[in-house]
Amino acid sequence: MPETIGVLGAGSWGATLASLLHANGHEVRLWEFDPQQAQQLAQTRRLSFLPQLAIPPAIVISSDIAATLADCSTVISATPSHFVRSTFQRIRELKALPKDPLVVSVSKGLEEGSLKRMTEVILEHFPQLRDQVAVLSGPSHAEEVSQGLPTAVVAAATVESAAERVQRLFFTERFRVYLSLDVIGTEVAGALKNIFAIACGACDGLGFGDNTKAALMTRGLNEMARVGEALGGQGKTFFGLTGMGDLIVTCISKHSRNRQFGELIGRGQTIEGALKQMVMVVEGLRTTKAAFRVIHQRQLKCPLISEVYQVLYEQKPVRASIHDLMARAAHFEQERAEGKG
Length: 341
Description:
It contains 15 helices and eight strands. The chain has helices spanning 12-23, 35-44, 65-69, 84-94, 118-125, 142-145, 160-170, 183-206, 210-230, 241-252, 257-266, 271-276, 283-297, 303-313, 318-326; strands spanning 4-8, 27-31, 60-62, 74-77, 102-105, 133-137, 151-157, 175-180. It has an eight-stranded mixed β-sheet, sandwiched between helices. The longest helix has 24 residues, at 183-206. The protein is globular, with a radius of gyration of 20 Å. Residues 336-340 have low confidence and may be disordered.
């Protein structure tokens, strides 16, 4: 049955999902924070960094968040993770939340200050929605989804009926949606994979080979599962689409902004210089700082996360970081239960 859906965030992913939902027969409105950009996008129907996507004329694009959400049955939260709090705070202040909506978070990250997941930030502002907040995550670059290339993702919610509703909204023959009840694991995996993508990009920039990247991805998956389970996620989640799947695509894809950022650092760029060359937000930068605090609070041994943090925030040379990872004391591979890495 068609729904009225408000998509918050007109970046590449928000615009792509808005277009997909429109193609599935729903009435879709797209919110852009900046009024000038909203006006331009309403006229051109195209993003400069995603030229292959033509946003359908029927999708209303606006910078008025109250108008975008009026009478919506579903809200898609697609802003960068560090804007989720301010966005939902604004919705609360304006009393713009529609009655009993399904809220689907598609933003990936941990909040730098509170260390909260995105659904936790949303529920902090609207606790009454506890059974109506879901997550959509998985290996899904907007560049490919916008072209209709086959993609598989996961809809996760604490209540099965909410996850099933997300599945019905998004499912197509080219966009397959699986179900999960592990919101924590799904969100942690989606956030942490960006850290390891930065590491893999740095290896590309240094000219290292596939062996190096395979090792980083595998050990990164190990750390992802260790942190996720410590926070309450289910181990099997990290070996599925939202864990291993998203990790693989983010670490190897030419579309991955986090991998591109790491590659620039590996080539010798400063953090500031690399950021200036990025068109879109590098979520892994803030997530690394948040994850570093988490592993210290939980006393988890996660050498990859620690080394990426030192490179990004303590000016440690990338080559020195790789050397220290390789020179660590030898031990058994499978020691996750003991917290060793």
